[in-house]
Amino acid sequence: MLRDKKVTQTVIIFLFIYLLSSLFLAFGSKIVAQRGFPLGFDIYLRWEAARAFWQGQSPYTDEVTARSDFDIYGRPRAEGEVAYTFYDPAYTAIILFPISLIPLHWAGVLWSALGLAILIMLLLYWGWNIRPRPAPWLLGLIVLSGIFFRPAIMTILNGQYSLFIVGLAILSWWAISRENYFLSGVLLAISTIKPSIFLFVPFVIILWALRWKKWNILTGFFASLAVLGIVTLIQIGWWIPDFLYRLQEYSQSLSQQIIFSWSLKDVISFPGILWLALSAALLFVGLKQLGNHDEFPYLACMAALNLNLIVTPHIVEYDLGVLLIPLFFLGTKWSGTRRGIAVWLFLIWFPWILWFITIWLGGSTLQWQNLVWQSFPNLILAVIWYKIIFKKDLATLRI
User: In the 8-state DSSP scheme, what is residue 79?
Assistant: First the structure.
């Protein structure tokens, strides 16, 4: 009964934070629009795609792209400008159905506000549970630092997925901790909404569920994907070829028009090889946890998350927002030490620190985006490995 009461209180607090976030961004959206793009503009193409989907049309058509371009640019797309083509799995339209029911401007505001509310809620929950409990000024610093985490800011401004996925992942692990395995599987299935940043982690958890016969996780995960797949087939038919074509076309278009912040060719650079080696070694260590019934494969999940980022191309820095997952994971191990909190704050501010140094040395934001992709994941992995080798406090990882 007490646990259910706490869940209810948490939901009420989250809804209140979401309301405040929505009001704040509703007033701030006019200021954001002055930079050339509306607030949450990346959700605009998903909004158009979802509406087409529920009208029985393919979300991958040129008409959907043309409408998306007009929504974002405020005019027809000019020659040489990036085309905003829908390239997500078609079942994304089912997950985003509620967004498609509201006016376009408010879809951008409410989607961005959802990401901001998730971020604030996670920061408050983690900071409040630090023992000994931090002074109000320190808790405020933790929350403000997390809000100003640069990849999170870009996720909110652009209307991207990373904060939504972070929320789903942590909620899924919370469901496992309460032995609500079916719900965990459902949440993991929804988290595949953007496979380029969160496809490998669910399958690590699937391996864990298979090993320890947590059948309801498998049921929730595959039943949810089955329902999404069946509804999609009924609505628009066989969509995989169109999806693959658009994905390839979009990648080729971007490579001709903009510079990727991270691409497969970067894997063969020194930072790329280091990132791959640290992630692969962590996966090996993490998978060994599957043999212990009392442990959850957190390390394997962190490794899978990094490997997922390595093998897919990325632009700008918003996809780095999913690294809040290992940052919160590290934060739980440091919650009792002031030194640990200081290191955590340094990691949160590192993208900004690197940006100021890059600009001070005469570099550009584009150069910084490349640098932050090469350095930030490696820095987090280095800290994890330090904790494993020297502190040995990641040896037992209970859920």
Answer: T
How far is 127 from 61, CA to CA, in rounded Å? 46
CA 18, 92, 252, 64 torsion-angle sign: negative
Burial 305-334 (b: 16+ CB within 10 A, else e): bbbbbbebbbebbbbbbbbbbbbbbbbebb
What is the identity of the amino acid at 360? Answer: W
Q: What is the pTM of this model?
A: 0.93
C-alpha span between 245 and 65 (Å, rounded): 14
| Beta bridge pairs of residue 314 | 262
Residues contacting 74, CB < 8 A, separation 6+: none
What is the band of 127 on the pLDDT scale with cuts at 50, 70, 90?
confident
In this structure, which amino acid lies at residue 389? I
Nearest to 188 by CA among 169, 207, 170: 169
pLDDT at 309 over 90: yes
Angle at 273 (CA atoms; ends 297, 334), nearest 5 degrees: 40
Q: Quick one: which of 222, 165, 232 has its CA closest to 192?
A: 165
For tokens 């066989």, name the residue: 238
Give the tokens for residue 8. 């209810």
Q: What is the pLDDT of residues 188-227, one digit of tens each?
A: 999 999 999 999 999 999 999 999 999 999 999 999 999 9
Q: Give 225-257 pLDDT, tens digit per residue.
A: 999 999 999 999 999 998 888 877 766 666 566
> What is the Cα–Cα distance from 142 to 124, expressed in whole angstroms?
8
Q: Are 282 and 384 in contact (CB under 8 A)?
A: yes
Could you tell me where the DSSP H helices lie in 237-269?
240-257
For residues 206 and 192, the answer to whether their CB atoms sit within 8 Å is: no
